[in-house]
Amino acid sequence: MKELSNSVCIVGVEESDEVGKLPGVSQLSLHLQACHNAVADAGLKMSEVDGIFTAGQHSPALLGEALGVNPRYVDGTSVGGCSFIIMVGHALLALHHGLCDVALISHGESGRSGTGVTRGRDTSLSGQFEMPYGFGGAPTYFGMITNRHMHEYGTTLEDWAKVAVSTRAWAGLNPKAMFRDPITVQDVLDSRPMFYPFNLLNICLVTDAGGAVVLTRADRAQDCAKKPVYVRGAGEGTDHVFVTEMEELPLSVATRNSGKKAFEMAGVSHGDFDHIMLYDAFSSGPPIMLESLGFCEPGEGCSFFDEGKSTPGGSLPINTNGGGLSYTHSGMYGIFPIIEAVRQQRGECGDRQVPGASLSLVNGMGGMLSAAGTIVLSNQK
Amino acid sequence: MELKRPLPTPMTPEAKPYWDGLKEGKLMMPKCDDCGHVFFYPRIACPSCHSRSVGWMQASGKGKLFSFEIAHRSLNPAFKIEAPYILAMIELEEGPRMMSNLINIDPDPTVVKCDMPVEVVFEKQNDDVTIALFQPAG
Ligand SMILES: [Zn+2]
Fold first, then answer.
1. Cβ atoms B131, B105 nearer than 8 A
2. Do B87 and A193 make contact, defined as CB atoms within 8 angstroms?
3. What's the ipTM?
4. Residue A130 domain flag
């Protein structure tokens, strides 16, 4: 894969017209808004799109039909919220081999309002072996990983709270963020108890939102509307689905494998990044990802979230859009950290711009650290 | 009597010995005939050596609390046990992990501790279904 580093670029990114609480917009429309907005951002025409990538309830075939596009290439990989990050790597391969010329990765989810959503997924295993005990919903599982981390490494509730505080500080600088008022560690500890070790402010929002990303080969990218952002590396991995089967709980084998591939392809190491986006469905997710990716020893991930490090103006900004914790989280959040990293690499982020950002890491999880996708993005080859 | 828990649904054919065992007060676990690996949930092949020869063994019912959460609410309307209650990940002494509830202990994180020894308690739901709960051992 190393020879494919920098061979394709992200040339368009955008959310749906709005993100937040949108009972008047169907899930399919969230997709379509994001697709049209991202293609326009790239300065391309919808008729030029010939590769469609999406995960969730709608198939790439339906999206093609609804958009009025007959794709030459489709990908419906669905391994949770990081699927869109994984699709950047899949799009890279398809573009490189000429299977498509303009790849469109789309997400749309009416996660809060449920508008235009029909429920229905396989629960034959969780229905037998988890739900009779009160399991169901991500907080009932992710807390297991989090609490075991506390047991093994002595991590405290205050440590996790720092992640929420740092992320909220960034949200204050993002006009699209749902919650923008600053919070303190004490606010997190005093918020409503939900599923110990999580209080309310440790848990992501539930919103309605869409997002889309457009990619093309590097030569063609030079002709698009905005400065191209190079995909320097991409990796993916899966480990378990059920938390009981998580191989090295509380660390994520999928994340370790995914990161290793992406770093090797990009030819970068941990110290090279000046901006990091980590999927934050829970405050404990980003530190555990940093540990699993090898940024630090197990148990040390929370130290990245000290004031002056991950925070605005800090030495290594993390989750600069305000994250799933404070900006938006529709369910499958993975498209949004890609969008933010591209905007940072373009220098479009206004008050929250990381000065001189030249190398972004995007790492996401599917399920309970079950799957992982990692990409390395840069405004330079 | 009104049920306080969602019943296991749908019971799959490969898990029948597990559910039949619970009705008789036995915690049955799939065990690989070839490599001896004991695992859970039930599958038709061994996830360790990939053998298709899988049998069953009766677990001791003893193990440890690998991790837990204290739930202050339920996200499933069909689960009506009064909060707070303890969501438990049990690691059986034979190796496999399973989800359950820890009962007969105060749902307080200063009292409940990871790795504390636990033992199985069988709780009948109706004539067809008994489930495995856990309590502090001894
Ligand atoms: Zn075996």
1. no
2. no
3. 0.97
4. no
